[in-house]
Amino acid sequence: MKSKPIYLWRKFVDPCESGIYEATLPARTEVAVITRPDRKRALLEVACKSRREARNLAKKFGGRIQELPANWLARFSRAQKRKPARIGSRLVILNVRGTSVSRPGPAGSRRKGPFDLVIPAGAAFGTGEHVTTAMSLRLLEQLTLSWKPGWSMVDLGTGSGILALAAKCLGAGRVLAIDNDPIAISTAKTNARLNKIDALKFQLTDLRRWKIPHKSRLRQSGNGGQVDIVTANLFSELLIEILPRLRQARWLILSGIMRHQERDLVRALKHHKIDIVQVRRRGKWIAIGATLS
């Protein structure tokens, strides 16, 4: 017997209106509210038993209908089996399902070839597949290629912890990972344990109130106590707001910026006497490597 297709009703709404829609939809309707850091609107999604049910929702509330084959979940799972992402010559990102992974050894241990960094699929924002994360990883690997081990880094908006963990693999001594989401901090800690990476500090705080720690807390030989790198994969508006607080770092890796926001961010960097060294562009996104004047 041939399986019936599945019909999805979808509509983009203002996040503050999602509760109104949930309350006015028919009783026993299970609504998924999907939000993403790179979108201002939330996506409402309802799986319907029939085309007629989906059409009734679209007629009453607007939105659109998508028909999925009965085996769509199996197809989706196969599509999610991504090839490892190679970052330069020193790092490979493995997006896997589950956490039962055999690790070759802790970060920083002596081994030939690139270090495999495991980030479970479905982790908090940042698996290495989104272009903003991928560009930031490549800037980080390129920047530190000739550096001696022991440099320091602060990762703002750490998400899954991927940039902080990558820094440890690439030779960082002290790394501080910061986020204002407790779920992100918990996920990042889990990923650190999964990869057997220690000597990594996590901090739950509002990024707008955060200040670079006193020199004595991040002191490294040869840099006078400065933080070597600050990575920030954040919204453009937030990046511009916190730029004055980042001037104690030697290098900045900034991403989460859309192309139409590039001009405003470049203007802000120049205003704070921060020199742009490299700009990477992929699709509608950009990432910037910068240093203090």
CATH structural class of the largest domain? Alpha Beta
The total strand number stands at 14
SS-derived structural category: alpha/beta
Secondary-structure element pattern, one letter each: EHEEHEHEEEHEHEHEEHEHEE
Radius of gyration, whole Å: 22 Å
For this entry, give a set of tags:
Alpha-Beta Plaits; Rossmann fold; four-stranded antiparallel sheet; 30% strand; seven-stranded mixed sheet; alpha/beta; 26% helix; 293 residues
Helix and strand topology:
Elements lengths: L5 E8 L4 H7 L7 E3 L7 E7 L2 H11 L2 E5 L3 H8 L5 E3 L3 E6 L18 E6 L10 H13 L8 E5 L5 H8 L4 E6 L2 H13 L5 E5 L22 E7 L2 H7 L6 E10 L3 H10 L2 E9 L2 E8 L1
Helix pairs in contact: 4-5, 7-8
Question: Please, could you describe this protein's structure?
Answer:
This protein has helices spanning 18-24, 51-61, 72-79, 131-143, 162-169, 182-194, 236-242, 262-271; strands at residues 6-13, 32-34, 42-48, 64-68, 85-87, 91-96, 115-120, 152-156, 174-179, 200-204, 227-233, 249-258, 274-282, 285-292. Mean pLDDT is 81; it is low at 99-111 and 215-224. The longest helix is centred in the middle third of the chain and has 13 residues, at 131-143. 26% of the residues lie in helices and 30% in strands. A seven-stranded mixed sheet has the order 10-9-8-11-12-14-13, with helices on both faces. Strands 2-3-1-4 form a four-stranded antiparallel sheet, covered by helices on one side. A three-stranded mixed sheet has the order 5-6-7, with helices on one face. The protein is built from eight helices and 14 strands. By secondary structure, the protein is of the alpha/beta class. It has two domains: 6-76, Alpha-Beta Plaits; 81-292, 3-Layer(aba) Sandwich (Rossmann fold). Helix 4 packs parallel to helix 5 and helix 7 runs parallel beside helix 8.
